[in-house]
Amino acid sequence: MPNQFRVHAALFFVAVIYAANYSLSKDVMPLYMTPFGIVTLRVLGASSFFALVKYFVAPQDKIIGWTDNRRSILCGICGIGVNQLLFFSGLNLTSPISASLLQTIAPIVVVIASAILLSEKITLPRVLGIAVGAAGAASLILSRNAQAAIYPHATLGNLFILANATVFGLYLVLVQPLMRKYHAFTVLARVFLVGAIIAVPFGWRDALTAHYATFPLKIWLEIGYMVVFLTILAYLLNNWALKYASPALLGVYIYLQPVLAVLIAVALGKDHLTWGKAGQAVLIFVGVWLVSQKPKAAAVPAAAETV
């Protein structure tokens, strides 16, 4: 089992990847590609990659049994198909910072779903961590002015993002037992195949009719980023971390995304960093630390964890 530094490093890198996407995707949508067109490129590229790697790395590993197969289908629906369609539809209609802030609902879903589906213990430090992190995220949300003139359909976009965060939080819980039982590429190949079956019918026309010849290099690089980093690498690191971290810890790292999204926006000249936002960032980091504290009882049955 890797040390906690590697687990936290993987989760932090995923948070950076997601945070950068909020600004980069706005360059592509809707001028160069539609949200569904981007989703189609992402899921087709990722599903092909994972299927190919799985063929060479774990050719004999297969998901067996009705329970695991049903779970893998649900993961493909929640984590890939519906998740991606909702996310890019919402991001197309609302601001990057608003979208990143609204993702903070996912940890709440993760903790509740973990308690129900995985019997995950909800300790007082975790409850306090969720509360502190939520306070920091809520403070960030309330401190920003509405941009109704720029995003007239922001309310609808925000609803899409909220729904996206909910289904993604459910995915984080559902996929954990599969990742601990099967090879990572076996699971990812299956869930992306299911996700492609769901998403491609919505966006294949947009993907085929896009005017690729007019795309500048910057747009090509950003699309490549969304396929390689946002889809393949982020899902790999996320699912690897699920083997060694609780769903609650992984989910709460979503709290970091608003802070990172603001920092990236500042670096790109699209936002301003204030002392108030710095204080809100401290709240979020404290929340992440509190939720990362494992229950004392969980450290005793080491043999059970091995099994």
UniProtKB/TrEMBL annotation:
<dbReference type="InterPro" id="IPR037185">
    <property type="entry name" value="EmrE-like"/>
</dbReference>
<dbReference type="InterPro" id="IPR050638">
    <property type="entry name" value="AA-Vitamin_Transporters"/>
</dbReference>
<feature type="domain" description="EamA">
    <location>
        <begin position="156"/>
        <end position="292"/>
    </location>
</feature>
<feature type="domain" description="EamA">
    <location>
        <begin position="10"/>
        <end position="140"/>
    </location>
</feature>
<feature type="transmembrane region" description="Helical">
    <location>
        <begin position="97"/>
        <end position="117"/>
    </location>
</feature>
<dbReference type="InterPro" id="IPR000620">
    <property type="entry name" value="EamA_dom"/>
</dbReference>
<feature type="transmembrane region" description="Helical">
    <location>
        <begin position="124"/>
        <end position="142"/>
    </location>
</feature>
<feature type="transmembrane region" description="Helical">
    <location>
        <begin position="249"/>
        <end position="268"/>
    </location>
</feature>
<feature type="transmembrane region" description="Helical">
    <location>
        <begin position="73"/>
        <end position="91"/>
    </location>
</feature>
<feature type="transmembrane region" description="Helical">
    <location>
        <begin position="187"/>
        <end position="204"/>
    </location>
</feature>
<feature type="transmembrane region" description="Helical">
    <location>
        <begin position="219"/>
        <end position="237"/>
    </location>
</feature>
<protein>
    <submittedName>
        <fullName>DMT family transporter</fullName>
    </submittedName>
</protein>
<keyword id="KW-1133">Transmembrane helix</keyword>
<dbReference type="Pfam" id="PF00892">
    <property type="entry name" value="EamA"/>
</dbReference>
<feature type="transmembrane region" description="Helical">
    <location>
        <begin position="29"/>
        <end position="53"/>
    </location>
</feature>
<feature type="transmembrane region" description="Helical">
    <location>
        <begin position="274"/>
        <end position="291"/>
    </location>
</feature>
<keyword id="KW-0472">Membrane</keyword>
<keyword id="KW-0812">Transmembrane</keyword>
<feature type="transmembrane region" description="Helical">
    <location>
        <begin position="154"/>
        <end position="175"/>
    </location>
</feature>
<keyword id="KW-1003">Cell membrane</keyword>
